[in-house]
Amino acid sequence: MDIVAENLAVCQICSPMDFRLTPEQESFRAEARSWLRANVPSAERGTGPLPSLDTPEGFEAHRAWERRMFEERWSVVSWPRSYGGRGAGLVEWLVFEEEYWDAGGPARVGQNGIFLLGPAMMAFGTEEQRNRFLPAMASGEEIWCQGWSEPGAGSDLASIRSVARPGDPEGTWVLNGLKTWCSRGAFADWLFGLFRTDPSAERHRGLTYFLVPLDAPGITVRPIAQLDGEPGFAEVFFDEVEVPASQVLGSVGRGWEVAMATAGSERGLSLRSPGRFLAAARRLVALYEQVALCDPARAERCADAVARAWIEAEAYRLATFATAARVLDGATVGPEASLSKLAWSGADLAVHEAAIGLLGSSAELLGSDGTPDGWLGGFLFALAGPIYAGTNEIQRNVVAERVLGLPRG
Questions:
Q1: Which residues of 157-300 form beta strands (DSSP E)?
Q2: Residues 399 and 274 both lie in one domain
């Protein structure tokens, strides 16, 4: 399916809305813009850019930035105030994201927690769990990694083989197995993931969702290098790891329901806001204007790709606001989240491919530390977009069967 058509399909299944902001929302935008422009780490202020978050020093620098935002209640603006948020609405969160990325805000080191686990915990967690984990998540005190994939169980999450059995003393669980491609796993503090608590159950039945500290006895973390050589992922081994029953999220044996809620946040509204791609598209247009001054012929060859990338970013924004309107009207984001995932992963690639075309051979230059940065680093990361959060091939099957109602092949 063509990426622009995918964006249009998202719009078609969403109810129309008035895209004008209210005076209160405009005031919120102005406040967010003012604070971010004054505080985002930058070379001009001598506070940035921050080192790569996939290095030990960069990880801690990004954690400190999360703490700074938390102190002013900007880290999780849509969360209740009791957990460190502002109690803002969904539209305000989208507005904040636009301002955050437009101001050049750093990648969110705590994104797995605040965008994925956090919403699931609010829906399925106990009051004790929410009070224990959410404020530490919002402040960056505790950073979370995903424990989804296993060897032989990537996009087919229901085929996981890591197991949990009741422990002794009663009220504990003992975990064994291996999780791989754990995002942020190299330096994170906690892991959330699925384990099979009923080995006799079929596929998605008999799974339980656990919250596990990565310093627990029996856990071994082995970093996995990305294309740029930095350890953005890890494989995590569990050897008789004991956890209390209080670290089960949701009901025992009902982990699939919690996992699908988490995955819906990952693919849908939470993980990849339009602001990220709008900011990249604006930088792309600025790059085009620079290239046009020194190499008009190259700029002309790339003009269509630049225009298309900008259109895709804007289309994704409109589609997301339309989806937000449905949610505010009481709807839920179900399989339509797969359309969103297809849209943002395609938009990310489109922007970076256009930039690489504009830069030509100079795009291959490495940063001062010998690793890819700027557009090249972004391009390498964008290549993974069609794979993580569920491969795009799987998402197209979901769209065909569950959104369009087509028969299974």
A1: 163-166, 172-179, 190-196, 207-213, 219-224, 233-244, 248-249
A2: yes
How many domains does the chain contain in total?
Answer: 3
Q: pLDDT value at position 266?
A: 54
- Is 100 inside any structural domain? yes
| Conformational region of residue 257, where left means phi above 0, alpha means psi within -120 to 50, and beta covers everything else | alpha
pLDDT at 11: 46
Confidence at residue 369, expressed as pLDDT on a 0 to 100 scale: 64
Q: Are 193 and 177 a contacting pair, CB within 8 Å?
A: no
Q: Calculate Rg over the CA atoms of the chain.
A: 21
Is 333 within a domain? Answer: yes
Among 41-45, 249-253, 367-371, top mean pLDDT goes to: 249-253
Residue 349 has pLDDT above 90, yes or no: yes
Annotated active-site residue 266? The verdict is yes
183 backbone φψ class: left, alpha, beta (φ>0; ψ -120 to 50) = beta
Using the predicted structure, report yes or no on whether residue 203 has a pLDDT greater than 50: yes
Using alpha carbons, list the distances in angstroms from residue 201 to 110, 172, 192. Answer: 34, 21, 21
* 115/98 Cα distance (integer angstroms): 16
- 3-class SS of residue 405: coil
Question: Which of these, 293, 302, 311, 284, lies nearest to 357 by C-alpha position?
Answer: 302
> At residue 150, what is the residue type?
E
CATH number, domain containing residue 161? 2.40.110.10
d(C-alpha 403, C-alpha 337), whole Å: 10
Instruction: Kindly report the CATH number assigned to the domain that includes residue 107.
Output: 1.10.540.10
Question: Is this prediction's pTM over 0.90?
Answer: no
Element (H, E) at 144: strand 144-147
The active-site residue, picked from 6, 266, 312, 336, is 266
Residues 8 and 70 occupy one common structural domain: no
